[in-house]
Fold each of these.
Amino acid sequence: MAIVVNLEEERGKKGPSLDALTALVSDDLAKVNTTIVDRMHSPVELIPQLAGHIIAAGGKRLRPMLTLASAKLCNHRGPRHIKLAACVEFIHTATLLHDDVVDESSLRRGLASANAVWGNKASVLVGDFLFSRAFELMVEDGSIQVLAILSRASSVIAEGEVLQLITANDTSTSEDSYLEVIRAKTAALFAAACRIGAVVANRPKAEEAALESYGLNLGIAFQLIDDMLDYSAKQEKLGKAIGDDFREGKITLPVILAFRRGDDEERTFWRRNLEELDQAEDGADLRHAIGLMEKHQSLLDTINRARHYGAIARDALGIFPDGPAKSALTDIIDFCIDRAF
Amino acid sequence: MAIVVNLEEERGKKGPSLDALTALVSDDLAKVNTTIVDRMHSPVELIPQLAGHIIAAGGKRLRPMLTLASAKLCNHRGPRHIKLAACVEFIHTATLLHDDVVDESSLRRGLASANAVWGNKASVLVGDFLFSRAFELMVEDGSIQVLAILSRASSVIAEGEVLQLITANDTSTSEDSYLEVIRAKTAALFAAACRIGAVVANRPKAEEAALESYGLNLGIAFQLIDDMLDYSAKQEKLGKAIGDDFREGKITLPVILAFRRGDDEERTFWRRNLEELDQAEDGADLRHAIGLMEKHQSLLDTINRARHYGAIARDALGIFPDGPAKSALTDIIDFCIDRAF
């Protein structure tokens, strides 16, 4: 696809990676994984089976790693961040299970999604279980402040998901409404995951706020790129089908920009495809949509918007001293954005 | 239906009611209702709309009333039980929303269910919102002990729902497996709702345990009668369609008893109807099923089993002094069982 080649040329050869982060938190992450496997256990065997399928499916563990790296940045000593990082992953997994039901997805990270294998019912209920289990883990940790942060994040996520449901198939959705959705459904958990690192380390409010701001803006950048990738990356690379959002009529930034920059004929095209979901079965409409996005630079500008939020995230870390933790957290920003290429 | 008449004769004329309970907690319940309306608010309007539909649909508010009456029994002074009773109702409502999605129900308390009006997606997400909001309310209350009780109850409920999903359509399900399901999916929240009344009042562990035991056994009795009513009460009275469980192939105690007491021909009938879901569309199979239940007294014995758990619940209250709260709580037991008639 032309866009990929152009962008490849634009930046250098060797892309940023999560290597520094992985090295920084690998011992802790192994403990988080053990905690996850341990605590998703239930005498009802279907629960660890289904939960294990999605948790083991090879997600990046980005959110729990954010908690671990943030705790490290704050010089946290002690074991509390391990359990709380597992909580964050449980909440994330619960929302994935419910998302796949809501989106009627059949693929997740390149594998059959849990709802495709075990049905929607089991996915809803195991999601509820993981969500409850997350709160049980927080209770064991015993911090009302952490409970406040994650219960608030959880209702914000749910609000964001409902808002997304309402704006689906509405091509008049503004960039601001879209931002409100991704801020809630994605960035709120990134923000909470990072803030918890400062909370367990008993750092001053300013550092809590800095890590929250880092997480929030990183989360926005992450979701922008995710939405851009749905129109550009290869399915194998991403582990999910290209054009999913298009087929569901999701209104993401690449669409919003192309719609606003297009002429009447193009808007009629977008309405037919995304509002009426009247789409050519041979993929011709998807190819045409990508063509319009290239014409209006809406994929490139989605990346540019992501860079803006990435820059805010980077500056938010400014108050922390340089070192391996700060540098790993900075690398995540570049990784989240540059995985677009 | 013959069973109704027989049972009507068996007991007296004027049945027990929730009147004493309602009188006892009416001021508090009004505050709980205000809290519920207040706290299901969200800038995303669909959330209070959908949540309001199910919450306002005229449920009995049995679970929050249990918290209120238990707090009264424990001489609790102060406002904490109000917010926590609202939490209990939020958790209950969240599970109802997810249940209706899982059961594909189109009716709830005689009205169209939320999933029938707004779709499964919105029901899943608003359920998640109410669940998160419940935890936010608990965090405001600030008691780790309450958080522990309700987060544990929530995962037990989810486990019970998954277990029910697994045993659905399996006529070999034992009475014990069935009991395990209803203990988890229904009784655990009754138990938690009651126990919280002792916790807010800082009562000794023995009283906490007594109220928990009362709630657990009351919850089992309640669900037994609920499952019995699906084969006997009039739809209008119950606000839901008779034979729902039959059509879905749910294995409840009336079925388990009739199946075990039946002959080979009858078991073939049960398997065809509940495992293969091969059922006559004119309701003839449902009528035949009810006939078999009458033949084997399986509805009557389901009530008898409920009486057994009701008796345990009654004795659990023995350590508390007599008075209006204790008497109201005792009335609930009779009401839950005698609504069978």
Amino acid sequence: MNILITGAAGMLGRKLAQRLVRTGELGGRTIQRLTLVDVVTPEAPAGFAGETHARAADISDPSQAPRLIANRPDMVFHLAAIVSGEAEMDFDKGYRINLDGTRFLFKAIRAEAAKAPYRPRVVFTSSIAVFGAPFPEKIDDEFFTTPLTSYGTQKAIGELLLADYSRRGIFDGIGLRLPTICIRPGKPNKAASGFFSNILREPLAGQEAVLPVSEDVRHWHASPRAAVEFFMRAATMDLTQLGARRNLTLPGYSATVGEQIAALTRVAGAKAAALIRREPDAKIEAIVAGWPRNFDARRAVALGFRAESSFDEIIRAHIDDELGGRL
Amino acid sequence: MNILITGAAGMLGRKLAQRLVRTGELGGRTIQRLTLVDVVTPEAPAGFAGETHARAADISDPSQAPRLIANRPDMVFHLAAIVSGEAEMDFDKGYRINLDGTRFLFKAIRAEAAKAPYRPRVVFTSSIAVFGAPFPEKIDDEFFTTPLTSYGTQKAIGELLLADYSRRGIFDGIGLRLPTICIRPGKPNKAASGFFSNILREPLAGQEAVLPVSEDVRHWHASPRAAVEFFMRAATMDLTQLGARRNLTLPGYSATVGEQIAALTRVAGAKAAALIRREPDAKIEAIVAGWPRNFDARRAVALGFRAESSFDEIIRAHIDDELGGRL
């Protein structure tokens, strides 16, 4: 099994590569080669028995995708993307990476298949940003995609291309609309959604964190650990079950900020929760008001995708995976 | 008022140009210039007081869109497209014209606006092909787009781009999901949907027609006349009413083939209806089974879009507009 991961230097890309190396196989087939690509050279995970090719490549350069596909990966995890905030600030860059980059990759697979039979599986990371307000309190599997950001637009277009290429048998694709990943490890960042992670991760490390919205803001979350298992499920399940509808809203856990803080208090004590400083920010409140709050991800659940079922569990996953199991 | 029509040599493009010339104004502003573009040079409509520029241009050639936009049309009717059957047969051509061509046009508007303030209105023709089975008997305004053809995929992508460019204020866009246009004038063609028109148009002209499906097949129709009025409404209405959701399923009339034939009998007599020859074609039956049958186009109706409310009316529109009012 020969695997390509784009966006492999990102948080999820790194965790996915580590997970693949730890298991050593995918769907019963030994992983022989791992190609890791990102705009900066990704780190090769330690302890892999097979070959690792880690390289820097700009997927919006049309010459790159054919090179990545030339060694015929059986499995393509396409995680590379310009994130929401940056795609909104830089219109051209967002379309170049998120739309053109994705299309170049899909086209390269088609061109490779024209030389000799080839039909890899493609796991595409989409996002709940494909949905835009107004929407019902709980968004079901047949609700329409009306993104309110260029990022959401680019992801929705990627979904459509993925479905059409899959329908035509060019590759076997699945698109995963990830919930907001919480608790994101690392430093606080400026993403409008950053506070969902900051208010847990920082207090768990004994640091102050800023909460810019009210406690009744509700959102849709899954841990990095759950996200990696989504990828594993998508990589190994029978995709004929999807029919022509190749894009799935994944399960998550819907919680208010108040419920997040209550879980933090239960797991780490009132002292941790006291490190959260309220600094209401009208601009962030306004952005967050346009975000989905809850989903009925029935289809993905029926297909065996699983997320956490409490915020305590999400916090404990972070303590296990990032803090060595200790506070 | 300076107007650009792409796809101006097509049936709807021609009728729209004639309609604009007949009225001479749009939203109270005199039409001074009409630029008509298609892959073949469109015919200039007779009797226009202003300037007509009719030219052949391939919109999938990136150098063309900037030229079309250089004279800063106030209104762009973007009708140019490879039709469903051809886009399905020729993957590259469909994506080149329907996706790249649309994107080049949108990008050219953005580039022009970067030189000096410019924000035209863009009326984009989408299609009910953005929907793919399974769907409810009546598709509502919030049902998701899961196209089962490359054409439907390309139109759904055009809709997403239109909404994002409009949201960013680059242009003021509206996407119109046209019903199947019936009765299409001209010769019978090989489009899988051709029979919906053939079984009326040919008998009305005293000719035999072939019906390849059963009489209980239900579909969604509007006349060419209604389609032109959709464009006029889209060109003159206040688009702020749309908010961020720039794409509309238009009203139509839902009828079974049996109901079409009953209307033909009422309008033109049993002798006309007797010219329909039943030749069941399993392949066409299968294609048509995946097509939408009925819509609840509530939003467009509330915004003032109107279609016919009986098939008799659709047939009479054809007799008036194509047969000089006589059978």
